[in-house]
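Slide 14.
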Amino acid sequence: MRYLLVLGVLIAAVALAAGCAKEESGGAESASASGGKVAAGGPEGGKMAVKVNGKIITQAEVAEEEGRLMMAMGAGMDPQQLESMKPMIREQATNNLINRTLLAQAVDEEGIKVTAEDVDARIVDLERAAGGAEGFDSRLAAMGVTREELRDEIELGVAIERYMDAKAAGEGGPTEAEMRSFYDENPEQFERPEQIRASHILLKVEPDATPEVKQAKYKQAEEILSELKAGADFAEVARTRSDCPSSAKGGDLGYFGRGSMVPAFEEAAFALKPGEMSGIVETRFGYHIIKVTDRTQAEKVSYEQAKGNIEQYLSGQGKQQAMTSVIEELRAKADIEYPEQ
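Slide 15: predicted structure.
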């Protein structure tokens, strides 16, 4: 899991691999840019999977990247289907690492430097997105990644961003006509569905809880509901009594549309008007008491409202296309060697 997609530029680099894999599906020999073959030995890190301009990528590194891709693709996918895709995923993993190596080499050749302060700033952004340093460290631990490994990846990612910015200098962003055309040709993307804003109090019940435990939790929910009906402040009760992480925000779940919550919760929440409170709602998570605080009707987002997001999206598409062109150019000039079979 070392090769984190923590920066948009690295996401783009990985996305390229699908196209590269398609072009190079003829096997190891046809995939070699140099056409050369070398012995399948390698340094202490393991047997060689591929050599890129003299830099060896080991089979262990490919397996690590393959595992990351399997984990990312596995969510919601049938295990049998995922198993059948293993050869393609392994090829994609190899191409990911080739692309990454080529970009790292290009950055070195250009002499692009990244300071510790640059890396620190990115980590602060990532921590904020994760809800704080503690939550961020928990995610890293779950992924088996250390902060030092992360810093290395961020340093490379920032350097690649600067390399790509230099390559794309003078190209400019999307024009007004291009943005307007995108808005007119994709009306379904600018339909804002009905949403509600709701808060809740959760008394968590484990799936394997005994009937006695469930009964005790339900009685607690009844007591809380009575307090709320008697005038207790919903947000304050949520802060002190709810088992959901949203308790820190007084139970506020923000705005959400249909399909975002489990069916029983959604049905109860959307049946309420702003200011109304539900009874006790049971889901697989436990017992909820829900209060709706706002509701927005379905509407079409105007061009002026959407313009900023459209510009950002089209700019991102342009950067990804530029990344594709750069990597194709680097691969065309590279000496890529695969081991003898």
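Speaker note: Residues 2 and 149 are 7 Å apart (CA to CA).
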